[in-house]
Amino acid sequence: MTKRDLLPGLLDMLVLKTLSAQTMHGYGIAQHLQRLSKDVISVEEGSLYPALQRMRQKGWVKAEWGMTPNNQRARYYTITTAGRKQLGEQEDGYAELMAGVRRIMKPA
Amino acid sequence: MSKHKSKDVLRGATRTQSGIARDIDEELSFHLDMRTRELVHEGMDEQAARTRAQKEFGDVDFTRRYCASMDAQTERRERSATVIAEFLHDVRYAFRTLRRSKGFAAVSLFTLALAIGANTALFSVARAVLFKPLPYGNPERVVQLQDHPVGDATETYSLAPANFVDIRQQQVSFADLAAFSGFTPTLQREGADPEIIRGAQVTPDIFRTLAVPAQHGRTFSASDTTSATAKQTILSHALWERVFGSDATIVGRSITLDGERYTVAGIMPPHFALGIDDQLWVPYRVSEPLADMVRARRQHYLRVVGRLKAGVTLEQARTEIATVSQRLAAQYPEANAGTLTTVRSMRDVLSGAYSKPLLLLQCAAFAVLLIACANLANLTLSRSVARSREMAVRAALGAGRFRLIRQLTTESLVLSIAGGATGALLAGVLMRRLLAINPEALKTMYNAGLDAWVFTFSLVISVATGLLFGLAPAIGASRTNLSDALKQGGRGSSGGRSRDVASRVLVVTQTALAVTLLVTAGLLMRSFGALTNTSLGYSTDHILTAQLQTTGARYDSASAVNQFYSSVLEQIAATPGVTAVGGATVLPTRGRLSTKLRVVGEPTDESNLPDLGYQAVRGDYFKALQIPVVQGRLYDATDDTSPEEAVIINETAARRFFPRNDAIGRQIRIGPDQNSPPLRIIGVVGDTRDQSVDMPAKPTMFASHTRETWDPTLNVVIRTTGNPESVASAVRAAVRQHDATLAVRDIRSFEDVIGASLAPRRFALGLAGTFATVAILLAAIGIYGVLAYSVSVRTRDFGVRMALGASSRTVLAMVLKDGLLWSSIGLVLGLGVAMGLGRLLSGMLYGVGAHDPLTYVVVALGQLAVVVAACTLPALRATRVDPLTSMRAD
Question: Which one of A26, A53, A78 has the shortest CB-CB distance to B71?
């Protein structure tokens, strides 16, 4: 199965969705996305961190240094209220998009 | 991991650029390490795993750089958002705290409003007077030329026309030189009372010299001086508004001045004046008086203004003019020897006299502000001690020391800015009241208002004040030790020692400043008292004065003038309630004309003739003012027509010029011409202070106005039995009856005239007195505050003492001693400073030395009384402490 590239804006949504369940560090987010998408989506890890910085600037996530279970220093990201709101909006938008695509692909 | 919002607000940690870079590096390395480890776990060898991880990652360098710059940006935004959030938080907190201690807030606000208000008001006035923009183009280049006796640069007077012409010809420093002199015509209109207008005759180029064009019409040109038939005039904006209703069509039409038609050539823009309250201008031909060789160089009546050439400094111009004037003195020794011409900036001429008093007053206001700051610092200190527990807890919760200081300083700033705003509003009210005391002399101050500059000043002062009294206590309060504070139960004595010393020092400073102000006010008050008690040589009550002027072709002959005045004076004399009527060309304190004296029969030095004050009097002038006759007699009907003209001199003149006491019968000559007909002295009258109330009499002569009618102005002086104002209408009626085209001006009681001359002193005294009162009140409040606090801290101490048998009197004495000790140190300090500043004040004093012992003693006693009063309440409270409850209290 070839890994498909992400649609723009999708990465943000996926990251927010991931964080909405749990605070994670950058590597954890990457792993989570990989696992759940069953290697379908290729997230160039290099683009993950810039995305996180952008979201941090927009106020959707917060970053704080913490300790991993292995006592290593890592930066943990938490979703904010604004981020949750954004996620909700984005989810709705995405759902609408998928519904539209479905209608075109499968004419009723 | 949730974070407390408040803790974020208190934290102030920031990262540097390298710190940000390190963070990014660490984060990315962590990611790569984790991936490498995972791959190794899956079976790869380390090296291959690492390479694979990096490849999967993508462009690490690009990511690193991008993230670093984004992170820095985010950091910056967060920081500024935090600062604003923190600041708003501080402000809200400050309001909450202040609302809790309403007493403190009220006292502080009141104190600050008063102190800052006073400073703002004075600044506004000083700005209007000293820095007011002059109504000329490029005003800093405009100067005035003045003559003065060699060696005495303070006694300045006008220039003589021939000298002006010569100087103008020979100088190189000025782009333009123009001259003007007074001109007070009577404006006659249909259907309105005639009115005397103060104006000026000007050389036509004066408007170019001052670089001000007309607003309507035009300014003068050289041809305006040549045509004798078509006379031109230019009106001031204010006159145009008031009398002609801003009617633009007046330009080109003619008006009647002194019975002659003048065509209005133009209207000047608002606020333009030559500095003598002039309302209209007519052209002046400077070559006219030159025909009279005697007058040309010896009669000084021209005021000269000039504009410096580009690149020429005031100093250079002054040097050049001095050289020219010395050359003229050598050329015309009888006329010019002993006189020097100097150059002064226009601003200096117009407002120089006020700079010292205003500066003094501003210092006084500033001293009051310092006292207020000391008060508030003390109060803040006391409060901070009570809040040390609160501070310690906040510090333990993570607030950095800087944060705490910022918080406490914000409280002080909130107070000071609120106080400043109130004060600025107060300043407006204060200024109006101050100006009401002295309307005439300080007319320019009417422009003093609350504008942008004044508000900025007020704001800056408020912030500075807040920092001054808030910062030090804040720094002290932030130095808390949590365990200490909690242990002492809120009354932490950690740093208590230094706090005590600090508040004592503040009390000493306050008291010293207040005492200095009190001494100043006291000296000024005694000066004023001495002045008003001075024997002036004339009486001031029950006298009405009015100014008349005989102008126009009708009064070209002496007989016409005499006819008019004697009829008018006769009619006024017949009015019921009038006991004496007379007239003089100049009223006491309203100026001084002088001429040169030669005593017949004594050798004269033509280059150094003595000055003699000149006045012409008519009717019962001396009787109306109750000036006594010391020798000889006053004028009677025979003097009107006697072949030899008679003259009266005052005591000082008699003493100085006739030391053998033989003045009566001797002859004198006056004026520039040494061959003028002599005058015979027929009487000597008592000395009068006619130049100003604080200057002793100078030699003066009183000519008979009947013989000397060349000055068309006469000030009528009327002595009444009742209220002088009651005869005002009679005066107007008399004038109207004998000539309806003539105006009466300035009808007011003589007391008002004298009062006006004293007004500047009264003004300064009023202000100084106000400041001194406020200062001592504030100092008293300060002492009270410190003592009250100290008593409350030592309540337990007093309780123990009294339980152990100390009488209430002992406790009372303890408290009183404490208060008196420190304020006495302040008293001594203040008296010392006042003595040191004595020289600065001496110029403004009269009749009392700057080190007058009586004043110092009274101030010392007064201050002690105030301190004792301030100490009483806390002392009494100390005695009323119940030993048992005090020991139980926390």
Answer: A53
Task: Give the closest-approach CA distance of B58 to chain A in angstroms.
Answer: 5
C-alpha B112/C-alpha B46 separation (Å) is 74
Rounded to whole angstroms, how far apart are CA atoms B428 and B123?
12
Candidate from B484-488, B736-740, B882-886 with smallest mean pLDDT:
B484-488
Q: Is B852:B536 a contact under the CB 8 Å cutoff?
A: no
Q: Where are the alpha helices (DSSP H) in B312-345?
A: 314-331, 333-336
Of A50, A57, A65, the CB nearest to B66: A50
- Name chain B contacts of A45, Cβ cutoff 8 Å: 31, 35, 56-58
Task: Give the other-Cβ count within 10 Å of B323's Cβ.
Answer: 12
Chain A: residue nearest B23 by CA?
A75
Residue A50 parent element (H or E)? helix A45-58
Asked if the Cβ–Cβ distance from A56 to B35 is below 8 Å, we say no
Q: What is the mean pLDDT of chain B?
A: 83
Q: Do A53 and B57 touch (CB under 8 A)?
A: no
φ, ψ (nearest 5 deg) of residue B117: -60, -45
The answer to whether the CB atoms of A66 and B1 lie below 8 A apart is: yes
Q: Which two tokens stand for residue B46?
A: 């380390």
B14: confidence class by pLDDT, cuts 50, 70, 90: low
Q: Is the dihedral of CA B685, B691, B696, B699 positive or negative?
A: negative
pLDDT, tens digit (0-9, with 9 covering 90-100), for A21-36: 889 998 888 888 888 7
Whether A7 and A47 have beta carbons less than 8 Å apart is answered as no
Q: What is the pLDDT of residues B62-118, one digit of tens each?
A: 888 888 888 888 888 888 888 888 888 888 888 888 888 787 788 788 888 888 888
- A56 to chain B: nearest residue by CA? B74
- B662, amino acid identity: D
CB contact under 8 A, A64 and B3: yes
Q: Closest partner residue to A50 among B3, B26, B67, by Cβ? A: B67
Say which of B31, B34, B70 has its CB closest to residue A50: B70
Model confidence pLDDT, tens digit, residues B828-873: 998 998 888 877 777 778 888 888 889 899 988 988 888 888 888 8
Give the predicted TM-score (pTM) of the model: 0.67
ipTM of the complex: 0.84
Can you spell out the DSSP letters for B467-480? HHHHHHHHHHHHS-
